[in-house]
Design goal:
single chain; 122 residues; mainly beta
Length: 122
């Protein structure tokens, strides 16, 4: 059984950077991993995913600012967040897929982390 352990959230000023980490304890294959986020009063949004062969997909809201990557051993995913904006403030969740391909459909991710808060404000 896979358990996700997230870390790296916090508070930062606009324009700053943060790096989130997600370790998939118990993972035995390179299934896709993804980051979702949910702000108060808003729907959950899939923002970045990485598949078996490191193929990545991003939402338009974070494209060119965020970078998802994976440890060479495959069991830890990272989200490097640059040029952060106040609208990036949300709870960020790591998710583990049942597929190898990268996609942002939450229905394909049966395992979720506990979430880590990211706050961007002056």
């Amino acid at each position: 059984q896979v358990r996700l352990v997230e870390s790296g959230g916090g508070s930062v000023q606009p324009g700053g950077s943060l790096r989130l980490s997600c370790e998939a304890e118990g993972a035995d294959d390179l299934y896709a991993m993804a980051w979702f986020r949910q702000a108060p009063g808003k729907e959950r949004e899939g923002i970045a995913t990485i598949g078996r062969f490191s193929y990545t997909t991003y939402s338009e809201t974070v494209q060119d600012r965020f970078v998802i990557s994976r440890h060479p051993r495959g069991n830890t995913a990272y989200l490097q967040m640059n040029s952060l904006k106040p609208e990036d403030t949300a709870m960020y969740y790591c998710a583990f897929s049942i597929h190898y391909r990268s996609d942002l459909d939450a229905a394909n991710y049966p395992v979720w982390g506990q979430g880590t808060q990211v706050t961007v404000s002056a």
